[in-house]
């Protein structure tokens, strides 16, 4: 009996819509990362506690400070 070892290549079983979810999530992530509020939070988080204190902020208050006009806190 002869045995043949050949690489098996099958046609892709994914539908054109299979990657749609990941493309949508990637787009939403890109939109969120482009948000100036997120960049402001990152900028403030990079400061030391002493620098934040000079601004009258505590580290736990950064989100509240940046989002103060949308959260009504």
From TrEMBL:
It comes from the Bacteria. This is DUF1127 domain-containing protein. It comes from Tropicibacter oceani.
